[in-house]
Specification:
heterodimer, A: 236 residues, mainly alpha, B: 243 residues, alpha/beta, seven-stranded mixed beta sheet
């Protein structure tokens, strides 16, 4: 089975997910395989190679902790947990560097230079409700310019959503962000493979970060669902 | 104003489930407003029968109304926000309209009756959105439905009744999008209509601080929910592995 939500059709249909058919475990395997292959492609062209060249794969955990000190309190507390869960030192250090890049990035939203929780929530709601996101909104959430699903904006939306999902304290909020992230990553994949134009290395960094965190969030939600079932079965 | 309950019947599987289940329970409407033409009231061949036989998806709305002798007003325009429907409701002046779906109601439509009852398949206020059956399975391992008196906005309004439903082994992955969804909601509708008759009944305002909106579920999350919580989906996955 091929994963069906990353083809050309994903570009023409903004909201293809209603009443999606059941494909059993084969569907989940197809999704995992597609994400793995896209991740490999991004690694070949983007972030991990740069990290390995610049910082080397031998970075120690303690250095990562020190570097985390440059992040503000909100990001630091959220990302230390995420870094701790990463397993691979190289990947953890890479993710931490992405966070730094991300903090320097100017959000393409009018009047807000950071991806605050409030802005990301607004962005996600627009994306979910309309199946697209524009480049600029004002503080009241009104669209400033019409520019639907510009690839560099979509990849930043995915990265910001991934970060917000990782920051979530409760599994319900994490699930809401993961739901949007899965859709955004489908769109990123479809645009990456079916829309022409130059890709910046930053876009590749963000895309890979969003894929890595999708996997972490999926694991969190799946473990929660399994734990709920175990509790119910134990109660019965 | 009359003390009159009206079912607003949009041509759908859910409307058939609501009407038949309520009539069987002796809680049917005083009058029905049926949207769409007679041709719109045809069964979709894809509609399957519920495992518990609680309603017959092949029986048209007209046939059920005839069988129980319930009067109807037909409004050809199936738009739930149509001007004709608003005029009809104002003329009938019902005390309660049971909403069977068909779109998001505008404020002008809601203003045509003092109370609109809607069954949402999620626990309100923290499970808003149209696919909360699946989010309920994913996050809670069960389905919780809420009957609300509708206000403008998604799943807003005071909660008349909440009901938690453990997973039924006859629910299927396909059914939860259609026939089982209708079955769950119609059961909760009947229980709500009973509750409305109880002395001292009072609806409960939703706490704005707890509200969470879940947009249409992504197929990956839907599959995790189904394969984790639904026995029939687990059976299907096992058969797939064996073959």
């Amino acid at each position: 089975m091929d994963y069906p939500y990353v083809g050309l059709g994903r570009l023409s249909r903004r909201k293809p997910y209603s009443f999606s058919p059941f494909g059993g475990s084969a569907f989940l395997e197809a999704h995992a395989a597609r994400r793995e292959s896209f991740g490999e492609e991004l690694r070949r062209t983007g972030a991990l190679h740069r990290f390995e060249r610049e910082a080397g794969p031998s970075a120690e955990c303690v250095e990562i902790e020190e570097r985390c000190g440059i992040l503000d309190g909100e990001l630091e507390s959220a990302w230390k947990d995420e870094l701790a869960a990463c397993g691979s030192v190289a990947t953890a250090d890479w993710l931490e560097r992405i966070v730094c890049d991300h903090r320097r990035e100017t959000l393409p939203l009018a009047g807000d230079e950071r991806w605050s929780v409030r802005v990301v929530r607004r962005w996600v709601e627009r994306f979910e409700a309309f199946g697209c996101v524009h480049a600029r909104y004002d503080r009241q959430g009104r669209r400033v310019e019409r520019d639907p699903n510009r690839p560099d904006v979509v990849v930043r939306l995915a990265a910001a959503t991934a970060q917000a999902g990782s920051d979530a304290d409760d599994v319900a909020t994490a699930t809401i962000h993961l739901n949007a992230l899965l859709k955004a990553n489908d769109l990123v994949d479809a645009q990456w493979h079916h829309v022409g134009g130059e890709r910046s290395t930053t876009d590749a960094d963000f895309a890979l970060m969003a894929l890595e965190l999708e996997s972490v969030l999926l694991d969190r939600v799946a473990r929660h669902a399994a734990a709920v079932q175990r509790t119910k079965e134990a109660g019965a | 104003m009359n003390d009159r309950v009206v079912f607003l019947l949009h041509p759908s599987l859910r409307a058939r489930a609501y009407l038949q289940t309520a009539m069987r329970a002796g809680l049917g409407p005083d009058l029905a407003v049926r949207l769409g033409s007679d041709a719109d009231d045809a069964a979709d061949p894809a509609w399957s029968a519920p495992a518990d036989g609680s309603f017959d998806p092949r029986e048209s709305l007209v046939a059920t109304l005839d069988r129980y002798g319930v009067g109807e007003v037909q409004v050809d325009d199936p738009d739930v926000n149509g001007a004709r429907l608003v005029a009809v409701l104002r003329a009938i002046a019902p005390s309660l309209v049971v909403f069977t779906g068909g779109g998001i109601l505008r404020e002008a439509t809601l203003a045509a009756a003092p109370r609109w009852l809607h069954v949402h398949p999620g626990r309100l206020p923290d499970r808003r959105g149209s696919t909360c059956i699946h989010f309920g399975l994913l996050l809670d391992g069960r389905v919780e439905a809420s009957a609300i008196f509708m206000r403008a906005g998604l799943d807003g309004g005071p909660v008349a009744y909440r009901r938690a439903l453990e997973v039924d082994p006859t629910w299927t992955p396909e059914g939860l999008d259609h026939v089982d969804d209708a079955r769950i909601r119609s059961r909760v509708l009947v229980e709500t209509l009973c509750r409305l008759r109880e002395p001292g009944f009072a609806a409960e305002e939703q706490d704005a601080g707890d509200q969470k909106t879940f947009y249409v579920i992504h197929p990956v999350l839907k599959h995790i929910a189904l394969t984790t919580a639904l026995p029939s989906a687990q059976d299907a996955a096992r058969e797939e592995t064996v073959s």
